[in-house]
Amino acid sequence: MLDNLYETELSGLLNKVKEIQNTGAHIMQVCATKIGESYELLYTFGKGYDIKHIKTVVSLGDHVPSITDIFPSAFLYENEIHDLFGIEIEGINHDYRGGLYRTAVEAPFA
């Protein structure tokens, strides 16, 4: 298990992201993994050699709040997660509305 892994419910995601942002950390990556009928979202932040992770588990019908008001560059990760996994992310700054990737199958990893 990661020492700096924070597991949170979807409702606590933005508060935890703001808390980490207040330490001066920057966003490193956001990834999604399908686990059965659910999806694990892992957000990674860093400041120097201090790396922190936030993990939340969502279902396909859940609406995930965007973190782009806190970390504007997260729009690429969030658009990618939407396009490849079909996860709805609400309030993305620079929302490509399913057009970031051109895939033969809509949401190929859903």
Radius of gyration over alpha carbons? Answer: 14 Å
Largest sheet: 4 strands, mixed
What is the CATH C-level name?
Alpha Beta
H and E order: EHEEEEHE
Number of helices: 2
Count of individual domains:
1
CATH topology: Beta Polymerase, domain 2
Quote the beta fraction.
35-45%
Structural class by SSE content: alpha/beta
Number of strands: 6
Helix proportion range: 10-25%
What is the distance, rounded to the nearest whole angstrom, between the alpha carbons of the first and last residues?
26 Å
CATH-defined architecture? 2-Layer Sandwich
> Are there runs of 5+ residues with pLDDT below 50, and where?
none
Neighbour order of strands in the largest sheet: 1-4-3-2
CATH H-tier superfamily: NADH:ubiquinone oxidoreductase Nqo5 subunit
Overall pLDDT:
92
Shape: globular
